[in-house]
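Q: Got a minute? One more chain.
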Amino acid sequence: MTKEGEFIYVADIDELKEKVGKQVFAGDDEVALFKVNGKIYALGNICPHQHASVVFQGFIEESCVVCPAHGWEFDLETGKRKSGNKGLETYEVLLERKKIFVRIKSKKSLW
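A: Always. Here it is, folded:
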C-alpha cells in the first residue's frame, strides 16, 4: 500500500520518446508522462471534459498538451487550462538513475 507523499516508480526514462505521452499508474492514480526538451512532466491522464483516459495520447504544442478528444489545452507545468481554470492534476517528478518516480498526493474522501 502506498502512502501520501511517497514517491512511486512509474517508468524508465528510456521508455519515453520526445513529445510522445506514456500512460502509467502511480498507486491508484492514472498518470500521463511526457518528455519535452529533456524535461519530464507528469499530469493526470483523465481529461475533465468527458472523464476519458486519453491525455497521454495528446500532442504537445508550445508548453501545453492538447487533449486528442476535444482539443482542450493543459499547461505542462501547472495542469491548468489556458483560461486559467483548473484542469489536470500535476505530480512532482523525481529522476534517479534513469528511473522516473512521481509523488502520490492525498485524496479527499467524499463520505
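A: The two ends are 21 Å apart (CA to CA).
Q: Perfect, thanks.
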